[in-house]
Amino acid sequence: MWKDLRYLKLKISFPFETILEPSLSPRLHSLSFSLIITKNKKKQMVSSNERGSLVHSKRLSSVGPGRFSGHDIVYEPSGMDLATKLHYLRMIYYFPSQAFEGLTTRKIKEPMFTWFNHYNVTAGRFRRSESGRPIIKCNDCGVRMIEAQCEKTLDEWLEMKDSDSALERLLFSEQIIGPELSFSPLVYLQYTKFKCGGMAVGLSWAHVLGDAFSAAEFMNNLGRILAGKEPKISTQPKAKTQTIESPKQLIEDPLAVQQIGPVEDNWITVNNCKLETFSFHVTLDRLTKLSDKNGTEIPPFESLSAMIWKIIAKIRYDHEPKIVTICRKDATKKEVGTLSNNSQVVSVVEVDFSIGKASHGELAAMLKNQAKDERKKIEDAMERAKGLADFVLYGANLTFVDLEEAKFYEFEYSGINPVSASCMIDGVGDNGAVFVLPGPKTGGARIVTVVLPEQEVEEFKSELKEWLA
């Protein structure tokens, strides 16, 4: 089916053997493969035996605030925070050797003590209040730090992971929260050194702490502290709970989330089908051509999302996704560096017509102009459940996530920015999700990561080929 596409690299990777780490938590796995439209280069295939030895010599330690946070300090996550507790952000920053030249483990850790003075919540552990609502005890238990070695050079790795996106899971911890809340770190950092001296900095971040924009600024502030600058952190608003007393007839359940469970203290999404992940790069030229097909100027995120919405509607012809969820940066939020799940808008678009018969431009316009903010409804639903409900956000509906405004490339080590960065979210529900990220270089390219049920992926790729021709 794909033999006529001139420049194509495709590799399918099956679940790989776990690398054990000291934790009581299970690990997340998925079948992944990557689709990259690029120049015709020699493929670098990775055998299962080689995969197990690619990243090795792991050493674990903990790091936390340099000063004592105090006794009985508790942070109460908001309803919106708790609505994301089954999701986990996984981010990777790739740096050249110059960024870490001469830096020992001690020198890497030293600025972190100051860093976590500003983010002591991330070094805490979950407990439950008397009512059962999850809270974070700021007990300075620390985040887990992992040091590892890789026998490939940075350039070799970047080419390999383009053919096999599952390789990136070797560069961050896949731990979740639970089943023992009090022993589960909320944040993991993994520093993987390549043979050439380059470094991959992997962040595993419990989404309950904050969205992708918060996590990106969390890392950017480490870079500022490394440079001897003051971190950019607005006054951290205290998360508050609220009592909902609306009459029953005025209560409207949110469309953006799906209630599941209960999962109790094992914070993980359980899927009814196997999901697969693949990524593709879209150049500015291709984006322009996609908009030109409609004779109108369409923003990249809406253009790509409308295209994918139509493709998936064709695949699911007997149950088209008439409701989609959109997550994107809230332009009205001016806070910087705070922990929050309110710096992104969670909204829905609902239609009552055939997606397949609608034009690309019509769907793009609806995504841009007719999205309805669901955050208040989600907050209210969680508070009605006293903070005890278990929700799936990403993949409850087909979900489009705009990460173009996440400042991944502002993170610096020794004044050097990453040559590449990636971000994915674990815990996606059965309806799938699409993540649109900025490309690694200037020029307007986008990286699109798609998570779908495995039985839909082959047809999706075939349709995608036609759209991007």
Automatic annotation (TrEMBL):
Query: Which is one Pfam family of this protein?
Result: Transferase
> Under the GO molecular function aspect, what terms does this record hold?
acyltransferase activity, transferring groups other than amino-acyl groups
InterPro entries per record: CAT-like_dom_sf (IPR023213), Plant_Fungal_Acyltransferase (IPR050317)
Lineage: superkingdom = Eukaryota
User: What does the sequence similarity comment in the record state about its family?
Assistant: Belongs to the plant acyltransferase family.
* Protein name from the UniProt record: OLC1v1018986C1
Which species? Answer: Oldenlandia corymbosa var. corymbosa
